[in-house]
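Dear Dr. L.,

I hope this message finds you well. Following up on our conversation about the binding site, I have prepared a predicted three-dimensional model of the protein together with magnesium ion. For your records, I am including the exact sequence and ligand specification that went into the calculation, followed by the structure tokens. Please feel free to forward this to your student if that is useful.
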Amino acid sequence: MAGSEPVFDRILIVDDNPSIHDDFRKILCDQSQDETFVELASALFGDRFASGGGMGPAVAVRSEVASLAAGETFRVDFADQGLEGVRLAESAMRANAPFAMAFVDIRMPPGIDGVETTLRLWELDPNLQIVICTPYSDYNWSEMKHRLGRSDRLLLLKKPFDAVEVLQLASSLTRKRQLEYRADLRDAELQSLIEKRTNALRTLAETDSLTRLLNRSSFLSRLQRRLDGCRDIQDTHSAVLFLDLDNFKLVNDSLGHEAGDEMLIEISRRIREVCRRRNSMLHLREFQRGRKRTLDSAGADRLDDMTLPARLGGDEFAIMVADVRDSSSAEELGRELIEAIGKPIEWSDRKLFGGVSIGTVLVSGGGEASDVLRKSDTAMYDAKVRGTNQFSVFDEAMHRRVAKQLAIESGIRRALECGEFSLHVQPITCLADGKQVGFEALMRWFSDDEMVHTPDEFIPIAEENGQIIEIGQWVVHSAMQIASRYAQADRVNGMGHLTINVSRRQLIAPGFVESIVAALKRYDVPANWFGIEITETAVVETHHTIYDQLVRLRTMGFKIYLDDFGKGTSSLSFLNHFPIDILKIDRSFIVNETPRGTAILEAIVMMANALGIEVIAEGIETEEQRSRAERLGCTFGQGYLLGRPKPPEAWLGEPLARHHPPSG
Ligand code: C2E
Ligand code: MG
Ligand code: MG
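The resulting structure of the complex is given below.
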């Protein structure tokens, strides 16, 4: 600090008497020239000073003056009149070398007096220390106080003055000014430090620590501010986009939290980038319109806040979007986000794929932030149940639909507790001779409102919210129990494989294979009575974990069925890489009788045969479909023509008495 700090050694003398100027000059400037100094001291102090010698009083005074002056030099400027003094102070300020103090005479006719001069000097520099010099007879302290106010920067010096007093004043007031400067500087430094720390704390409190995006509560308060800002403006729309990553929990569960965090950070970066692009576009548009800020009406604080992202928690994000004219411009932004988030994310030596479901709500004319966010969440939920990478705009009907979905969610919990689920079985048939070679176990839910829910209604919901793990456990136990009962009736040979549908979330859940082993033991059934049905889409990503699980199951004796082949990407090379025993060709290929469909089907069957994989044609409803499938090389078939899903006893007769109670 000391190196660069200004030195406050400048003193201003304002007095209309030139001889007083000389006196000041001698006291403040010339102490080093002993002779003059002695002369002056003699003039001021008379014999007391000049007669010196020994340790008499004159010596004492002399050494006092000398010690005061020692090492101190002042730069002194002189003015004959108040206004001239003010001008000198002004140019000193401009030169960045302000006076530390001023000695100001009280009367300087014909110019302004000392009090007026003081006022003007303070106007220029409120920190200037001022000593008003006045003869004994010539001052009225209370009048002066009245005009100048109370100040610790004002002193009186009575004339005729004493050199020691002048030096003391000069020395202590310049020093005071210097110390005040340091204190102010320190104060400013402290202030800026406090401001910096406060800002850092505010940022910490307002942002999410992982992604550095706004957090939920600050997002809600910003949204409320914006809504309040456009309460009376009906034609200005804002929108809130609610984003929920698809299958994020899968990444977390299968690859660990580190991968999950990496994914969230990368996706946040992409979201921020899309928002930044939109803001730049708005900037440009505003610029082209020649307007600086027209967007206040939307309640946005700054143009940069026009598209403002936040992380609400977990894998949920929200974006507040101002200046949205209609749902299509919100959708455009939604599509851009879906594309950005969908690009693969490199992690370790693998690629992670992020999907996202986006719901949006348009708002105009104010509203409650929490209400708006809830509606966008509802729209997101609607998008989610329609599949991955979907976008929905909120409308009132959606409310009812989503309420139904939520009812299913709580219904599933009740169904598990009250035993409302059951398994039906559908035969798998040899197309050549019509013999049943196995069965597929398919869930049915008989809810207490006498409704039968098919899996398509509740499995996707259960897959997303994780309930599928518990449901899957129940299915495995029930299927093995069925097998065990028919085995005891010695009908198992007629039943062949009983296949169990397993979703991706189950496959990657820790302990999945172990739970299957425990169930085999419990129902005392061998693994080779069962098939595990998985879909291509379930295994295409994060395939290392799933691959390992499938290999373990296969080694134990389970047959692996690839379900719904043709619904997804239908990668033929996939057949080569995955441990597959049987391929189930999706119903869409069986129904599609175009030459192109037929050619594809033929190619799939040929490829499968070449790899030693059996083929089942799914969804055969007509004799034509059956014979075409057979003609094209499918060995087995499944479909309403060959047998509908029914309770096991409908196909296999009554089982023996129950030996093992079902377990959840
Ligand atoms: P999926 O595994 O492909 O099962 C075949 C679906 O096609 C069944 O629908 C069946 O009833 C239906 N189906 C069979 N033949 C025909 C036909 O000729 N025509 C038509 N139009 N449909 C036919 P369902 O039972 O509604 O099951 C739907 C999907 O739900 C299943 O498709 C499977 O992916 C899933 N699912 C069913 N049960 C379970 C389960 O226990 N666990 C899991 N994770 N998923 C299950
Ligand atoms: Mg299946
Ligand atoms: Mg299928």
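In brief: The longest strand covers residues 436-446.

With kind regards,
A. P.
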